[in-house]
Amino acid sequence: MRPHFDNYVRTQSGKKLCPFQPDPSQIDIVDIAAGLSKICRFSGQTSSFYSVAEHCMNVVGVIPEPGLKLAGLLHDASEAYLADVPKPLKAGLPDYQDVENKVQAAVGIRFGISPEKFGAVKKYDWETLKAEFALFFPEHYAEDIGESQSVLAQLQIAALSPWDAECQFLQLFVKLNTQG
After folding, report:
1. pLDDT of residue 3
2. Has residue 8 got a pLDDT over 60?
3. Is 44 within 8 Å of 54 (Cβ atoms)?
4. Residue 179 resides in a domain
5. Is 180 within a domain?
6. What is the sign, positive or negative, of the torsion defined by CA atoms of 172, 163, 159, 81?
7. Contact criterion met (CB below 8 Å) for 11 and 27
8. How many structural domains are present in the chain?
């Protein structure tokens, strides 16, 4: 007999999320903050711990449109339930991408964020990624990114601890969610 947890991810808050059929009512901001704050970007190949939660907060910082900031904060929320799969691996796993899209859609439903808003955030996510790459891997930037260095010089990597990243992520969520 297979264990029941083969069908779902048990979250810190006690909810159960089935990645193949995600129920938006099982999506919780506390679980998102907890999960993203403990996942390191770039497969952990950075000089210091840099969480997906901190990345998401940095994306918010470069978005000029107030109406997109919550989508920016939650653009990688599916990773709280599925992990941050490196781009080369993700590109070879179309089934994984389908599951990730389902979970992200459930996040959008739960927090009232349209797919169009998540789509509009992609350019800011890309600009933030380029700036992160320039900070963590400056000697490989042109080779790996395929262009000259990013202009996002204002990006600061605080290398927050998971606890600090989780708390700051939740504080920013409350601020953005109350702004409408």
Report:
1. 57
2. yes
3. no
4. no
5. no
6. negative
7. no
8. 1
The CATH number covering residue 77 comes to: 1.10.3210.10
Question: Dihedral of CA 34/70/42/153: which sign?
Answer: negative
Please give the single-letter amino acid code of residue 128: T
pLDDT in tens, 90-133: 889 989 999 999 999 999 999 999 999 999 999 999 989 888 88
Convert the pLDDT of each residue in 74-101 to its tens digit: 999 999 999 888 888 888 998 999 999 9
Q: Are 53 and 73 in contact (CB under 8 A)?
A: no
Q: Kind and range of the H or E element at 90?
A: helix 87-91
Full domain range(s) for residue 58: 4-174
What's the rounded Cα separation, in Å, for the pair 132 and 125?
10
Predicted TM-score (pTM) of the model is 0.91
Higher pLDDT, 69 or 2: 69
Q: What percent of the chain has pLDDT over 90?
A: 67
CB atoms within 10 A of CB 43: 12
Q: What is the 3-state secondary structure (H, E, C) of 123-148?
A: HHHHHHHHHHHHHHCHHHHHHHHCCC
Identify whether 96 is part of a domain. Answer: yes
Best CA proximity match to 80, nearest among 55, 58, 98, 53 = 53
Q: Specify burial of residue 147 (Cβ count, 10 A radius: 0-12, 13-18, 19+).
A: exposed
Strand partners, 40: 51
